[in-house]
Amino acid sequence: MAARPLSEAPEFAFGPASDANPHEYLKAMREQAPIARTPMGIVLALRHRHLELVTSDATRQLETETKVMQGITSGPIWEMTRTGMLFANGETHARRRAPVAKTFAFKLMDAMRPAAAALAAELIEPRIGAGPIDFVNEIAAQIPARIIADILGIPRSDLPVFMGWIADTAESLGFIDLKRREQIEKSLVEFNDYVEKLLNDRRAAPREDFLSEYVRATASEDALSEAEVRTQILGLILAGSDTTRGSLCLILAHLLRHPQQWRAFCADPQGLKKAVVAEGLRYDPIVSGVPPRVALRDIELDGYLIPAGTPIAVSLISALRDPEVYADPDRFDIARTDHPRWHPIFGGGAHRCLGEALAKAEMEETLAVIARLAPNTQLIGDVPKCSAGPIRQVGEMRVAFA
Ligand code: HEM
């Protein structure tokens, strides 16, 4: 039978229904068809098995196309997109990723666990019994920002301004709210200058730290431009901030909404911390989809013809609740045993997340600290609402530690 044209795939309509409950909305779509299409012309692949498109040689990573679509073809956002690793392919991508991968190594990041646990305890202990707090900003945003600041050797006194830049410039990774462009670009210029100064300091006086190693590695790699050297550091900071902050919130909120599982976790935080994080990342993923790939040739996917040149995003909100892989997928279950070996939330292939070990260390240790020090913690109200977007933004979340 001839493959069906894309025009016959259901349309994913951004709006109140998909915003209010993306899980329910995408489940209904998945039951209707294996793929959907968005008004911007992106194919949404809905099944877990479609994750193989992420690593397939029939696709490549989307580059600057979304910025061009938005009319952004010069200036700081454009430069950041053009010189980063996330939106690059082939040899260019490998050249940019190699020095970071070499120095931001798995073992080194896993060794950050005691630091993450100590930071979590320092933030949480004084708030126990103090009533409801703003969990998003007082705890969840602090953990990734302070840890990456420590890794980069940024003084604590610079943290407030550093966190302000992160909040503004993280928006440059996705679709830009054009009303915010000026502010984002102003912060990007300041942030770039700051990172450049850090790099120059290490060139002048190397220390025993990540940034000095990175400077050494970039000097011996096939020539990276100064902008490329800088952008990879900015990218590292931004890629790890909203993702880890939001995940921490959602995982804790779902745990607290399942009191039996919360109690089980409190009884054995060390034994269960990995399972808790894996299930939280699956059940309510902070990244709505793997960054889009582009079809390099015509692809037939579950009976639909995807023409060469079409961007394809595998929806993680849908794939991570695919009943073909996860038993009773709408159930939050920290005891499930059907997680694949590589968690899809971190993408795949040449672009698989470089911060996986660090993110897991931060989330697992923070949650274990809360379970150990404050087992009677309460979530005030519902699980926080998330805004739509490639990295979903968590709304208000108040927690009382006890
Ligand atoms: C819960 C936390 C996190 C999640 C869910 C997450 C998820 C992802 C995803 C989906 C990708 C794209 C992979 C692909 O295109 O196949 C990615 C890339 C990346 N992530 Fe993460 N990430 C997290 C935390 C971090 C942290 C803490 C860092 C570093 C401090 C980091 C650094 C990066 C970098 C540098 C890339 C680009 C890799 C490349 O293009 O080669 N991430 N991440």
Cα-atom radius of gyration: 21 Å
**Hetero ligands:** protoporphyrin IX containing FE
Mean pLDDT: 95
Principal-axes shape call: globular
- Assign the CATH topology: Cytochrome p450
The quaternary state of the protein chains shown equals single chain
- Could you give the distance between the termini? 62 Å
Assess the beta-strand content as a share of residues: 5-15%
In the CATH hierarchy, the architecture is Orthogonal Bundle
CATH homologous superfamily identity: Cytochrome P450
Low-confidence stretches: none
Total strand count, please?
13
Name the descriptors.
402 residues; alpha+beta; Cytochrome p450; five-stranded mixed beta sheet; 19 helices; globular; binds protoporphyrin IX containing FE
Give a brief outline of the structure.
The protein is α+β, with helices and mostly antiparallel strands. It contains 19 helices and 13 strands.
Description:
This protein is α+β, with helices and mostly antiparallel strands and 402 residues long. The chain has one domain: Cytochrome P450 (Cytochrome p450). Helices cover 50% and strands 9% of the residues. It has 19 helices and 13 strands. The protein has a 5-stranded mixed β-sheet. A hairpin with a 2-residue loop joins strand 7 and strand 8. Helix 6 runs antiparallel to helix 13 and helix 12 packs across helix 13. The longest helix has 24 residues. The chain starts with a strand and ends with a strand. The mean pLDDT is 95. The protein binds protoporphyrin IX containing FE. Protoporphyrin IX containing FE binds next to helix 10, helix 14, helix 15 and helix 19.
